[in-house]
Amino acid sequence: MDQVTFRSDTVLSDVHLLLPNACHLMKRLNGVGQPVFTSKIRILRDYDEKDSSCDSPVHENSDASNVPRDEDGDLDVVRRPRCATYNRDPVCPIILSQSAVTLTDQDEDSEEEDGACDFIKIEHTMATPLEDVGKQIWRGAFLLADFILSQASMFKGATVLELGAGTGLTSIVMAMVAKTVYCTDVGEDLLSMCQRNVTFNKQHFEPQDSEIRVRQLDWMADDFCTDADLEFCWTDAEVADLHDNTTFLMAADVCYDDDLTDALFRTLYRLSSNMRHPSTTYISIEKRLNFTLRHMDVSCEAYDHFRHCLDQLQQMTDGKMNFTELWKVTAERL
After folding, report:
1. For 168-225, what is each residue's pLDDT tens digit?
2. Which of 218, 283, 311, 314 registers the highest number of CB atoms within 10 A of its CB?
3. Are 165 and 185 in contact (CB under 8 A)?
4. Which tens digit of pLDDT belongs to each residue from 50-67?
5. Cα dihedral sign for 236, 240, 241, 242?
6. pLDDT, mean of residues 46-50
């Protein structure tokens, strides 16, 4: 599986592209016949935290106002220096059966043996059609996760909503410091994989009495899915808790299609309008540059449309909400 066969509709995250034959092991086929891989992501701690336990895995910095910005005003995350290259043994993928696999005791035992305090285990796919890109891991998720860990005190004890969570990586990191995380996306197969990832990594947030609730949230719909017959539906109590207690929203690499970007901002407005407290939204987005025949130049149309939507949101004057962009988006009711 090192040599991915591309078709005209195939999309592959460079997170996977840059790690051929290094850390991917095919585990199974998902419900729609796509190969599912497992990757382990190491949490790089600061030097003074190497001997710390799982109960305190993050570096705290309470002064978020000093976070640097680039010339466009976007958040400029200072990268941690690379210490050394970690050698990984090559792994040959083995195709198992196509089924709805559940977490077994053997899986849990192997996690304990592998030193699960330092690793996040994520199931994902590779080389999917555009509509299934949420099943891959993207750079934006790593950027947002790094920001969460560097500003842990800001999110401590908070209720957080993630939009377009995909594999759930960012929600898992957020749950290491927040109290409650609503991890949302659409598609039963994607949500099932996300739930498995949450279960794989419960040792990172259960000691802090934090919880992750995987739920369906369709940006194209006007309301929450409360059908009790569906596995990832919302209860009335959860909807009330979301509206009453949420103070942070986040999304990673979700702006790659103009229609979805429009739906994202409509959802942000609708949710913020019903929240009791002012809320702050963090969106990480990779600015992908391409040469287009329409412009005969290098451009990033998806990012340009995102900025256009962001400007429209700030210019809204309906008398109900006020949106302010700093290096984040803050929403409050008037």
Report:
1. 999 999 999 999 999 999 999 999 999 999 999 999 999 889 999 999 999 999 899 9
2. 283
3. yes
4. 444 444 444 344 444 555
5. positive
6. 44
For the chain, the farthest-separated pair of C-alpha atoms sits apart, in whole angstroms, at 59
**How many other CB atoms are found less than 10 A from the CB of residue 284?**
24
Instruction: Give the strand order in the sheet containing 211-216.
Output: 211-216, 180-185, 159-162, 246-252, 279-284, 329-333, 321-325
Q: Which residue has the tokens 């958040």?
A: 75
CA distances from 298 to 21, 55, 292, 295 (A): 32, 47, 6, 8
The pTM assigned to this predicted structure is 0.78
